[in-house]
Structures are given as C-alpha cells and as structure tokens.
Design goal:
This protein is α/β, with parallel strands linked by helices and 379 residues long. The protein is built from 15 helices and ten strands. The protein has a seven-stranded parallel beta sheet, with helices on both faces. A three-stranded antiparallel beta sheet has the order 8-10-9. The longest helix is centred in the last third of the chain and has 52 residues, at 273-324. The protein binds guanosine-5'-triphosphate (GTP). Residues 347-372 have a biased composition (Acidic residues).
C-alpha cells in the first residue's frame, strides 16, 4: 500500500530505496537553493521535550500574531497528533497517514512517526515553494514538531527539513522548556545539554522559551545561567554522581549560556509574548549577519569538495585508460561467471567510446539478475 495515498500493496525494500534516493535529491536541492534566499518570513521551528507545551505555545503564538496584525503561517510536522487547537496551513497529516505507515512497514509508534516524517521530507521542496510564493505577505512561519524531540532533532529528515528552511529564509529554533519540571538542577542541566546539542547540530540561532511561568517563575533558571556559583550552590547538598557531573558541566556550558537568548513565557496566560518576539527578531538579524554567512561558506566548501572529487575521479579514469593502452580494461570485483562477462564485452565491442560508471554497471547487473559487479572501459 502506498502510504502517501493509502492504496495498493508495494514492495517495502523498493519503497525504502526510493525514499533514500528522494532524500538525497532533496539534500542537493536544499543545498542549491541559496540563490532564492528571502529575508522574510522568519521561520520559527518549535522543539522541546514531550509535554513541555510546544503545541499550546504554538497556539499562543498564532493568537499573538493574529492580535498584533502580523501574518503567520502554520506548518504541523507531527503526524501523530490527534487534534490541534489551531488551524494549520500545511499539515503533515494531510499527506501521510501515520497509522497506515505503521501497518505497512510493521512499525511501532515512534518508527511510524519517523517514517512518516521521512516520507514527508521527500516532498518538502513543495512546502518551501508554497511558502516562497506567499513570502511577501508573511511575517512568520510557525513550525510544530513531533512530541518525541529526537525524532525531529536527530533524524535525517529533520535535518533536511531544517536545512531546506534555513537555506531559503531566516530560521530560528525555539527550544521550549517545561519550567516547573526544570526546578531540579539535574533536570535543568539535562534540558540545557539537549538545547546545546540542538544549537550545535542545527547551527541556527536558538531561543530558550521557559514555558509555564504561570506555574513557576523562570527567574531561578536565569540566575543559574548567569552565575554558575548559584547553580553549584543549588546542587551542593546532592553527592550523587549525576550531581557531580552536572556541577562540572555548569562551567562548560557558560559559553553556551552567554550566546543564547532566554525568555519566560506562558502558553496559557500569554505572558512574555512581546519579549519572545523581540528575541526572535534579534535572532533573525543575527542569522543574517552570522549564520547565513556560515551557511554560504559551508555550501561553497561542499561544492568545492564535490568539484575536487569529480576531478580526482576523472584523473583516475584517464590513468586507467593510459595504462590499458587502448585495450579493454575489466575491473573485476568477485567475478563468478567469467564467460558471461566476456560474452557481454564482445557484444558491446561496436561502441567507439563508452564508459559505464559503477552505478550503471550495478543497474545492468541487477536487471540481468546477476550478482557480479564488473566495470568495463571500452576504448
Ligand atoms: N500551566 C500551564 N500549562 C501548560 C502551559 N503550556 C502547556 N501546558 C500544559 O502542558 C500539557 C502539555 O502541553 P502540550 O501543548 O500538549 O505539550 P506538547 O509539548 O505539544 O506535547 P507533545 O507534543 O504531546 O509532546 C497540557 O496539559 C497543557 O495544558 C502553560 O504555559 N502553563
């Protein structure tokens, strides 16, 4: 059954291969779209631990943009969410049926969400072009992500989606923290380490949104971030191994704390929204000054490496041709049916010049139902 259409049965291996190919293609198109870069809208990707209040927070952002007469666009990337308190302009659930994916691929809930996101990522260039068409009328694009944070932050599709956004618009990641639950220094440290890893993985500006401030003030967190001695004093009474580790990490994270923006918000009461949008605007400016330049540099590096690789391959091919002195070179890697290969070479002898690369060669062999891997260079 095609999970994108929920129709007839198909081969799972074939589907997976197609998926990998599409992801590769998308990676290339994301990398090459820098020429279309737009300064507006700002993409706000909302991530956070399960239950931290991402969806409620996004709902609050939608209400705030509406009230302040700015134009928002909402993208939902959580295929497993039952109902959303806001209307999403683009919803993964309209394209991928999460339960069908679970059934077809015989997966559990997390595998189902991950595969749904992978399938959706293969179409993400279309999502970006829809937003590009409306770019002039939009101020913000608000992106909700799956409840299980790692499904988005540590998956290939999450990286592809983030990269596709970041190469076309200024993009800011918002990490939602459950403030009441982070009042324990060890939980706080786990959250900060996660936020830090997201910052280094995405290489995008990050805003820490301490949510649920209607229940617990986030002042303690700001104090811990500003002065590691206050944090160490809070953890002093705990002699466990985790506490000692958190203690030493507080020093290491000092640089991270200095470079990110933190705001206290409440998705329920709406407190802190102005401060949050100020942090987003400042981060978007920072994106243009620092992150965009870095992104362009990384892209140029990637292109240079690809160019070098091509040159190296051509040089290798030229040397092979020279050493064969006009004859036929057969690169044999585990040949089983020698006669069949010789026959194949003779049949194709008419060609003036023909080079089969490794991929083509593999295809041909697959088609003929042979498992030999043979490369021929005809001169
Ligand atoms: N008091 C209070 N509760 C909140 C706030 N934000 C969210 N909640 C509650 O926290 C719970 C989880 O909120 P969600 O918005 O579903 O959190 P989520 O991160 O989207 O959850 P998953 O996507 O399922 O992981 C709900 O019961 C919300 O009502 C807040 O600012 N204050």
């Amino acid at each position: 059954m095609d999970p994108m259409e929920s129709s007839s049965e198909q081969d799972i291996v074939e589907e997976s291969q197609k998926l990998v190919d599409s992801l590769d293609k998308l990676r290339v198109s994301a990398a090459s779209s820098s020429s279309n870069f737009k300064k507006k809208p700002i993409i706000i990707i909302v991530v956070g631990m399960a239950g931290s209040g991402k969806t409620s927070f996004l709902h609050r952002l939608v209400c705030h943009t509406f009230d302040s007469k700015s134009h928002g666009y909402v993208v939902n990337l959580d295929p497993a969410v039952m109902s959303l308190p806001f209307g999403a302009n683009i919803d993964i659930r309209d394209t991928v049926k999460y339960k069908e994916v679970m059934k077809q691929y015989n997966l559990g809930p997390n595998g189902g969400i991950l595969t749904s996101l992978n399938l959706f990522a293969t179409k993400f260039d279309e999502v970006v072009s829809v937003i590009e068409k409306r770019a002039d009328q939009l101020d913000y694009v608000l992106v909700d992500t799956p409840g299980q944070i790692e499904i988005f932050t540590w998956s290939a599709s999450g990286a592809i989606i983030t990269e596709a956004f970041a190469s076309t618009f200024p993009t800011v990641v918002t990490y939602v923290v459950d403030t009441p639950r982070s009042s324990s220094p060890i939980t706080f440290m786990s959250n900060m380490l996660y936020a830090c890893s997201i910052l280094y993985k995405t290489r995008l500006p990050l805003v820490l949104a301490f949510n649920k401030t209607d229940v617990a003030d986030h002042k303690f967190a700001l104090e811990w971030m500003e002065d590691f001695e206050v944090f160490q004093a809070a953890i002093q009474s705990d002699n466990s191994y985790t506490a000692t580790l958190a203690n030493s990490l507080s020093l290491s994270l000092y640089e991270f704390y200095r470079n990110i923006r933190s705001v206290g918000v409440s998705a329920i009461s709406g407190a802190g929204m102005d401060g949050f949008f100020k942090a987003i605007e400042a981060s978007a400016e920072e994106y243009m000054e620092t992150y965009k330049a870095d992104l362009d540099m990384r892209k140029a590096d990637k292109e240079r490496l690809e160019e070098e690789r091509k040159k190296h391959e051509m040089e290798k091919l030229r040397k092979d041709m020279e050493s064969s002195q006009g004859g036929t070179v057969v690169l044999n890697t585990g040949l089983k049916d020698r006669d069949a290969t010789e026959k194949m070479m003779l049949e194709e002898d008419d060609e003036d010049f023909q080079v089969e690369d490794e991929e083509d060669s593999d295809d041909a062999i697959d088609e003929d139902d042979e498992d030999d891997e043979t490369k021929h260079y005809y001169l």
